[in-house]
Amino acid sequence: MTLAAAGAGFVEPAYHERSLGDVVPAVAVALGRPLRDQDAPSRLVLPEAAAYVVFLVDGMGARLLERYAHAAPYLSSLLAEQSPATAGVPSTTATSLTSLGTGLTPGAHGLVGFTSRVPGTDRLLNALLWDKDVDPLEWQPHPTAFARLRERGAAVTVVNKREFVGSGLTVAAHRGADYVGADKVGERIAAAVGAAGESPSLTYLYDGDLDWTGHRYGVASSQWLQQLSMIDSEAEQLRDALPSATRLLVVADHGMVDSAPESRVDVDELLELRDGVALFGGEARFRHLYCHRSAVDDVVATWTEVLGDRAEVMTRDVAVARGWFGTVEPAVRPRLGDVVVAARGDTAILSTSDFPYEATLVGLHGSLTPEEMLIPLVVS
């Protein structure tokens, strides 16, 4: 399968073909419990089975898995035989996990980045930390694919860290499933094997340690390679522990790029980038710029001139027309920036005053480069 190029070295999201939002609907069909209310049927076809375990590894891009195959011989061997998939836009955890759990595109489920504007306010919602004033059931009102699969008679279980139970992101993305708290690898594998004993069933298992390591040390670091090797062993042990009739599907939410110091742009040092911008959101590789009234065209012109070929700068309308977010629902539209900025190469667009933590990170993600967008989707 050849995934469509979006120009400028970008990869188009393969919505309804081979993207994260297609995984659970395809699993449902493979279990014999199709989600009949799918607006746009997925073209992803998976092998039939009585039980599926979906193991999502945060930050394990397909390009990274190919590049460092020696550190992950099991997973890289599977990837060599099966086509990659894509994340959605932006290629970031909150957006991707919600696409997987709901079966929807970002423009439908509404989690459109690490941070996005709460419409009608001058505040940003941090989708990972959440805000107690924002009801996740209102922010993401659609029934999840997990819940719909359960209504079709399948057992559905989420295995994740105890700290995430009941979080805003969990409620928005993964409600409707049984939740098993498991902090250690051994706990996670045992919980997944136990849940997969039911038939038909879907068990979702999450591991975020590789992403954390990449952010902290970079994907070119020995720490990241060691963590990748541990993930590879975890996946192989999980496969060995599961019955042969149970399918294991390994996927990721995005890849990652290391951003060099000389590739970083700080809007607090280039004050012209603040002109016309009322609220600075998104993340370092994919910015949402919420503009003052009538300032949109000037913001696009200034950012285009300053950044040049380091980023793709466009209005919200252009990004929506390109299909980056899928079909955008009216309630979601104002959460998108009036202007969106997608970084090329290893560029990072920072604000050391608004987001000081981002400046401490080495590995970053969110844009549409192949390193960030292409993800493994392998079945064993």
From TrEMBL:
Domain of life where this protein originates? Bacteria
**InterPro entries listed in its UniProt record:** Alkaline_phosphatase_core_sf, Phosphodiest/P_Trfase
The GO molecular function terms of this record are: hydrolase activity
SUPFAM superfamilies reported in the protein's UniProt record: Alkaline phosphatase-like
Protein name listed in UniProt: Alkaline phosphatase family protein
Annotated organism of origin: Nocardioides panaciterrulae
